[in-house]
């Protein structure tokens, strides 16, 4: 395969008379004729056609018959566009100087004319590019759909640059799929194969290139121009135009025009993808907020009341949705309270949390002990739980006389703070819920007196971190709970939350934090 540098391909030079009109050439030669008496001065174009002839040759000199003529090439755009001939060849010093000066004058006129043409051509090219940008704004700016833009971009490319086929590919961006499109008379499969083989052949596919030659996947000789799609210093994909081998090769102007088209097209594609991503993020944020609101409504808004007991609770998710939960319901004459923590994060944990709360409520009934309630819930959750999804759970039944029956399924041991400030930890009576459908869950019983406090919590409370990475800790949590044991359920809860907030400061939470406090005021009556 041969790679051609499009920028070095010579442009076809215009005819001499387009750069140097006959009238101007004749006037310039006429100014030198007094110094060239007896000489015939001719200017011919590159094909040998006479452009202008001035002066009178000496006897027998016309047509070069009196000796060889002096000649000099006239050059523009790196190519010979004409010839200056003087016959006979000057032998006198004065005539020799005059001929050299005439040649230099005509050459300067050609150079100046070529410069003016280049300036005009550059101005026209700028106008063409500006016009292209305006048109692209109309053609591509009407949609923010990344899937629709490639076809529009190819249609515009074929309108501007003659080709028998065009292909465009947009590489995948993270979770967003790529896109491809083809246009022209060539089959789509062949075009995409040509595009891929062209990218493979180029050492750096982030630069434009004009290529000619057979490809590894297609023995047909094909002329191609490849231009990358780049935005924000990233290559998004590329555009390929093809022509048959017998057609004219793509020019540097074609490549430049296609590059301008690709630059703007890449910007529109990138904006469209950013817009789609923004919409997806907005939808996700809305869905997460909706999930948060649903979860929040699952938590009891009003705590159940029974003579002798006061209950207060707090639920603070680290993100929009949480795996923590608490519950407090009436169970006959008793109050049933629970705090759970799903061993996962994100939407999966939130869904499993909602399922656990519902199953736990369905499993509870007057007369059933905590161990039986948790065992029933475990059997139901194991039937629906995905691999690795389980929950730790502390479940307690508060009786009017102050007795507390509880089951602790792999959860943080609840604190039982006595009125005198002593602390007991209610240990585990079983393993995780949702782990093994056949496991048995035990239960235990403790007696509370007036002024005693029961504290249920998740590890997001005690393992909360401050900005330096220091942990709140079990010791500080217990010390604060003891200090505020006489503040009532709501007062103790508020004091613990305030102390936790003062410790954490501006640090962002990394785990959900749930806290439930039940205080016993003594038997009714």
Can you describe this structure?
By secondary structure, the chain is of the alpha+beta class. The protein has three domains: 2-135, Beta-Lactamase, CATH 3.30.450; 141-278, Beta-Lactamase; 299-520, PPM-type phosphatase domain (Phosphatase 2c, domain 1). Helix content is 38%, strand content 26%. The protein is built from eleven helices and 20 strands. It has helices at 16-19, 22-32, 93-140, 149-160, 188-201, 252-298, 346-363, 370-384, 459-462, 474-483, 488-504, and strands spanning 2-4, 40-45, 50-55, 70-76, 79-87, 165-170, 179-184, 209-215, 218-231, 234-244, 309-316, 324-331, 334-342, 391-398, 403-409, 415-417, 423-425, 444-447, 453-457, 513-520. The strands form four sheets. A six-stranded antiparallel β-sheet has the order 1-8-9-10-6-7, with helices on both faces. The N and C termini lie far apart (100 Å).
What name does the CATH topology of the largest domain carry?
Phosphatase 2c, domain 1
Q: Helix- and strand-based class?
A: alpha+beta
Shape: rod-shaped
The proportion of residues in beta strands is 25-35%
How many distinct domains?
A: 3
Spatial ordering of strands, largest sheet: 1-8-9-10-6-7
Give the tags.
Beta-Lactamase, 3 domains, 11 helices, 38% helix, 5-stranded antiparallel beta sheet, Phosphatase 2c, domain 1, rod-shaped, 20 strands, disordered N terminus, 525 residues, alpha+beta
């Amino acid at each position: 395969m041969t790679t051609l540098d499009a920028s070095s391909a010579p442009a076809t030079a215009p005819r001499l008379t387009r750069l140097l009109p006959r009238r101007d050439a004749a006037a310039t030669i006429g100014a030198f004729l007094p110094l060239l008496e007896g000489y015939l001065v001719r200017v011919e174009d590159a094909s040998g056609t006479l452009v202008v002839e001035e002066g009178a040759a000496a006897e027998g000199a016309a047509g070069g018959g009196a000796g060889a003529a002096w000649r000099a090439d006239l050059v523009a755009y790196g190519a010979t566009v004409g010839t200056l001939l003087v016959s006979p060849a000057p032998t006198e010093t004065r005539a020799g100087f005059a001929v050299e000066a005439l040649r230099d004058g005509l050459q300067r006129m050609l150079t100046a004319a070529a410069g003016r043409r280049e300036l005009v051509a550059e101005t026209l090219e700028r106008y063409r590019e500006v016009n292209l940008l305006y048109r692209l704004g109309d053609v591509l700016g009407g949609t923010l759909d990344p899937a629709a833009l490639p076809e529009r971009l190819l249609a515009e490319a074929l309108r501007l640059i003659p080709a028998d086929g065009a292909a465009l590919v947009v590489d995948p961006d993270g979770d967003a799929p790529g896109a491809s499109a083809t246009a022209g008379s060539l089959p789509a499969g062949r075009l995409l194969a040509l595009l891929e083989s062209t990218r493979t052949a180029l050492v750096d596919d982030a630069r434009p290139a004009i290529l000619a030659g057979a490809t590894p996947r297609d023995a047909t000789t094909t002329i191609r121009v490849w231009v990358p799609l780049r935005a924000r210093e990233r290559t998004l994909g590329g555009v390929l135009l093809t022509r048959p081998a017998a057609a004219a090769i793509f020019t540097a102007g074609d490549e430049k025009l296609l590059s301008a088209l690709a630059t703007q097209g890449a910007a529109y594609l990138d904006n469209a993808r950013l817009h789609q991503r923004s919409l997806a993020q907005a939808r996700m944020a809305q869905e997460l907020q909706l999930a948060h609101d649903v979860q929040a409504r699952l938590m009891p808004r009003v705590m159940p009341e029974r003579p002798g007991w006061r209950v207060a609770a707090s639920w603070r998710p680290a993100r929009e949705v949480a795996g923590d939960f608490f519950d407090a319901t009436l169970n006959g004459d008793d109050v049933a309270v629970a705090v759970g923590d799903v061993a996962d994060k994100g939407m999966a944990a939130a869904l499993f949390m909602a399922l656990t709360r519902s199953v736990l409520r369905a499993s509870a009934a007057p007369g059933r002990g905590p161990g039986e309630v948790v065992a029933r819930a475990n059997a139901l959750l194991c039937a629906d739980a995905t691999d690795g999804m389980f929950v730790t759970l502390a479940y307690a039944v508060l009786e009017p006389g102050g007795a507390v029956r509880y089951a602790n399924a792999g959860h943080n041991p609840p604190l039982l703070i006595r009125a005198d400030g002593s602390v007991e930890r209610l240990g585990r009576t079983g393993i995780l819920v949702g782990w093994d459908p056949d496991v048995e869950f035990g239960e235990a019983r403790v007696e509370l007196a007036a002024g005693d406090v029961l504290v249920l919590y998740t590890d997001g409370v005690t393992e909360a971190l401050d900005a330096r990475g220091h942990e709140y800790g079990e010791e500080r949590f217990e010390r604060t709970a003891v200090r505020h044991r006489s503040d009532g359920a709501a007062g103790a809860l508020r004091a613990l939350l305030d102390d936790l907030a003062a410790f954490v400061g501006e640090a962002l939470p990394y785990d959900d934090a749930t806290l439930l406090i039940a205080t016993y005021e003594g038997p009714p009556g």
